[in-house]
Amino acid sequence: MKKLCTIALLLVAGTTAFAVPPASAAPRVPVPPTMPRYRFENFTTANGLPDNHVFAVLVDGDRIWAATENGLALYENRVWKTYTTKDGLAHRAVLSLALDKRTGDVWAGTMAGLSRISGGRIDSYTQLNSGLSNDVVYGVSVEGENVWVATAAGGCRLNTRTGQWALYNERNTPMVEIWTYGVAATPTKVYYAVWGSGVLEYDQKTGRWDKYDDPDGENEIVLFKDQGLIHEIVTSVSYVDNILWAATYFGDSRYDGRYWHNFLTKDSGLPSNFTNYIKGVDAKSAWFCTDKGLAYYDGVNWAVYRTSLKDGKPEMTVRDAEAKVTPVAVTTAPAHNYVLGIDFQGADIWVATAKGLSHGIREKQ
Amino acid sequence: MRAGAAAGFALLAAGLSATALTFFSVALWTGSPVHADEHRGSVEDVDYASPLEVLLSPDGARLYVLCQQSQEVRVLDAASYAVIKNIAVGRVPRGISLSPDGARLFVTNSWDDTLSIIDTNALVVVATWPVGAEPSSVVEDRQGKRLFIANRISNDVAVLDAQTGAEEKRLLAGRGSSYLALSPDGTKLYATHVYPNASPHRTAPESEITVIDVARAVVVDRIPLHGIAGVFHMAFSGDGRLGVVAEYHPKNLVPLAHLEHGGAFEDTLTVFGADVGKTVEVPLDELECYASQPFGVAIAPDKSRIYVTSGGSEIVTVVDVPRMLRFIHAHNGPFVQDLSASANYVVARIAVGLNPRGLTLTRDGRRLFVANRLDDTISLIDTRTNRVTSTITLAGPKTITALRHGEQTFYTARYSFQGQIGCANCHIDSSFDGIQWNLEPDGFGRSIVDNKLLEGVKDTEPYKWTGTNPNIPTECGPRTEKYFWRSENYDNLTLADLTVYVRSIAPRPNRWRLAGGELTPPQERGQAIFERSVDKFKKPIPEYNRCSYCHSGPKGTNQKIVDVGTRKPTDNTGLLKAPPLTNIALTAPYLHDGSARSLEEIWTVYNPEDKHGRTNDLTKDELNDLIEYLRTR
Q1: Given CB 3.0 to 4.6 Å as the disulfide criterion, which of A12, A52, A55, A231 pairs with A250?
Q2: Shortest CA gap B410–chain A (Å)
Q3: B219 closest CB neighbour out of A118, A145, A160
Q4: Starting at the edge strand that comes first in sequence, how are the strands of the sheet with B51-56 ordered?
């Protein structure tokens, strides 16, 4: 619900920003070679999506799954098909998606339970008919035979082989708040993004939990940069190449197991500190889905893809290591600046936004 | 002569009156130690072969017979039927298949969760691999890269490395995943399942054929089987254009009251593929000729015939494929309940042995071997004449014990009106079927009941959900005869033998309990909740409202009649017998009417007043722990 309310507020803000008079056309300059450029094709209810509020997107080969407020949409062979509660989906509002790459099964977190889509069959788990701790499923991640779930009442792990559920909450982890907002599971570590309680880490080998908090507590002041996690209100986590990427509503963090590095608009190319979703590509690069556009960081440079806050036109900017921002001429942008999710299809990207789904087709540079 | 009958004749020969004979039978029912032990003594010493499946070697020279009770593969010369070798395998073997080159024979051992691999040159078991829970069928891909195994308990198909046995992953299949078949081109694997998938209460059962892409080892489709509960073997035509599956179509949404009108089950095939154009359910039954408990299926190499075994009717049904296809294409809409339909395409019903199961055709399609599980024979059918030309008797005991006769009685459909159904229709493989029934004695539309597990049913009387049947003979005798069979009664000795068999049905191994019997930490916490006498607020829980009171003892029942607040408007009473907890994890849905789709729903939905145990003080974690413990029972 919080996510939905935030979307509504930001939509109003975004609309106001579009009213700014257009600026003069940006000059063409060379793009740093590592910063990708895309042509965005956007999908809305006008061309097949069941709803324009797209909370997450998942790529499975040639198939694209879109988690919308009004069903789970599948794009295959250039046709959209929508799964609803009539098909067994736990709820029409789908908030999160995960793919079991081994089996091809898709797991969908919804506002009223967790659904497993397997070969066209949908089985749904709720807090009443299963061991799921809460019906509001904000995040889901698959690792081996385990499905890790982030709910409004703590985390869960379903062992798909035994059917056993394990619940994680304030009684058996260092979690202070139990509002888990995202989860990233890997064979070695599992991370939970906890809304108001930092990042929880589970070591798969030892079975022990650890916790990372904002050293400044709940103060909205960063006394020392890179001292620790940027903020307690964590919305998303990603773990790749032994690097933790964490998104908050007040900036983002990267943690290599020893050092933290934080990203704020004032000292990075991040378009907004309000980050809904983060996805690491590797140890040095990541994508940031914010309320003011989509950003890519390659470890040195930043690229931002959005509709201009000044003139409402498609915009791409590149910020280099010297903080020099260079506009790049583009003709398309993601469907909306309020970005909620991203996934990769080869060199292309798919972007979930508050007003449609976007296919970013990588352009030759 | 069977042992029970022998005892009866002995009594008559001794000049005892009919009254005395009746007393003898009743004494058996009530567990009289003298007579019951006479039967059981003969039972325990006898290992029948019980052939379940048959398979020909690729060159047609050998016949492999999977013998479930003697737990071995018997290798016969396919021409002389002489025994070449008997090879011991694991407990309760269920599935058998050959590698594509015929060099390896695979056997799934359903009770010890292993796969036996037999070298067909040396005819020895060269490896035994641990696999999933209750492995029931196995298939190797054409490349010899992967093995696929259907696991009945975990409802999945496991994917294994064919050379090492290392499990790669599990694919979600239907509930009670049991039988596999590879498409002729080897690209698709099809899986069936014996219990219906979860569906809303009091709706038609739903089953599926799970379609797996072999190269990717992922599920790519699920062919829906509406109204079906109990799906068994599949077969494909050589050109891959016709698929067929044997299945049960229960009529469980209407009162089980009109067997004379074909009112309990349809015995059907579902056919699919390019020749059919869509998925079509095809009935095998006609008046006075039912094909009860269809199980094995084969298609002739020239695609002219489909052969189907029916375990209850003890026949092989022969379907003329071209006539069946013409009929299907000429009739739009479902005709599954049309008892005149099968006359258009069924060309023969061949009587074979008792409880025929697996079958296999020679490569030229001239001869059909049928495994008759309950009389230890193989029927050999000449497919040109549709006659049994010989019956191969497997080595083993010739005396029919009371237990064996009881099992034969359990599976046969001969006692019901026109031979429509047997006990095993609802108690698949002597267990349960996962569906709910409306039985006539309670009134039409009244007292819907979930079918119960028979495993470990001994000494848990009274029976029925309401506990109104005092013992097994009453449950299996007058009640069954009057309300189910609507035909002839069992004679007293047959009922006694049936009772002996039902009492002997052992629980399958519990897969949630660790080896050695110890409990995991969540199970231990759950056990403490199960046995607690005070709630979380330190308030005493009355004895009658503790889990461990009603569900006491090794089988989890104190055998008392109680009201746990689960009465529905359609129920005649809220008083129910505390059911045993034996293998409770397997038997969803729950409660007397099957309204709770999962163990969780017993308490999250149907226990608002804490009458079914004090549980509303529990957190979700604690309820999960309780359920983890229950799964070990």
Answers
A1: A231
A2: 33
A3: A118
A4: B51-56, B62-67, B72-77, B83-88
Amino acid identity of residue B207, one-letter, is: S
Q: How would you label A331-349 residue by residue, b for 16+ Cβ within 10 Å and e otherwise? A: ebbbbbbbbbbbbebeebb
Phi-psi region of B277 (alpha: psi -120 to 50; beta: other; left: phi over 0): left
CATH of A43-300, one of 2.130.10.10, 1.10.3470.10, 2.60.120.260, 3.30.420.10: 2.130.10.10
Q: Could you give phi then psi for residue B482, rounded to 5 degrees?
A: -75, -45
The per-residue pLDDT for range B362-399, each reduced to its tens digit, is: 999 999 999 999 999 999 999 999 999 999 999 999 89
Of the candidates B40, B77, B421, the one whose C-alpha atom is nearest the C-alpha of residue B230 is: B421
CB pairs under 8 A between A and B: 75
The answer to whether residue B513 sits within a structural domain is: no
Summarize pLDDT for A333-347 with one digit per residue, the tens.
999 999 999 999 999
From the CB of residue B364, how many other CB atoms can be counted at a distance below 10 Å?
11
Please answer yes or no on whether A131 and B220 come within 8 Å at the CB atom.
no
pLDDT digits (tens, 9 = 90+) for A9-47: 333 333 333 333 334 444 555 555 569 999 999 999 999
Average pLDDT for A288-306: 97
Predicted ipTM? Answer: 0.89
Identify the contact set of chain B against chain A, taking CB-CB distances under 8 A.
154, 156, 168-172, 197-198, 208, 210-211, 216, 218-222, 512, 522, 597-598, 600-601, 604-605, 619-621, 623-624, 627-628
Q: What is the CATH number of the domain that holds B370?
A: 2.130.10.10
Chain A: give the shortest CA distance to residue B396, in Å.
Answer: 39
**Stretch (H or E) spanning A288:** strand A286-290
> B219 and A127 in contact by Cβ < 8 A?
no
Length of chain B: 633
